[in-house]
Amino acid sequence: EAQVTQNPRYLITVTGKKLTVTCSQNMNHEYMSWYRQDPGLGLRQIYYSMNVEVTDKGDVPEGYKVSRKEKRNFPLILESPSPNQTSLYFCASSLWGRFTDTQYFGPGTRLTVL
Amino acid sequence: GENVEQHPSTLSVQEGDSAVIKCTYSDSASNYFPWYKQELGKRPQLIIDIRSNVGEKKDQRIAVTLNKTAKHFSLHITETQPEDSAVYFCAASEGYQKVTFGTGTKLQVIP
Questions:
Q1: Mean pLDDT calculated for residue range A100-113
Q2: Angstroms from B96 CA to nearest CA on chain A
């Protein structure tokens, strides 16, 4: 089944404790992206990647890192999480990142930073 | 950068009536405008999109219109049904890679 998976789905952590949220897709997609969703603010793009080893900043990249060492995986890294990073995170992918390519979203990761 | 404003934030309609959600964008270079539907507790799903060289696109009960001069685009849902109840997001992008979303509209269809 074609899908985007994220792990963990729920995470409660403390300020400053490094964490990684994994994202994996099995559709051989070139383009992958991370978003955070907050009430009243909608979805905001954190980082995106057009290909292996190619990443670029979205609208809210501060406090986050990403890597794209292989096509199927695009982990989101929080080196020193803070409470303002408490949010619902979505990973997404599409074939090439073109207009005609549907963007598929993962199921979401709800992160709470205490 | 791009700024997308979406209105209204909440919308209640009677079943069978039409619903209209409006978005404006700031960057004239934006050329792709998707709409997503997000049901409670679920992931966003693309429902319709439009490119800047098209003024209107329709898919069954949903349609999107784009006015490039005024920098606004709208989602129209006709003959609304209870299963249309969800949060709807508009978005704008240049070249699709970097995407800016609106803040969402919670649509409630009252049976």
A1: 90
A2: 6
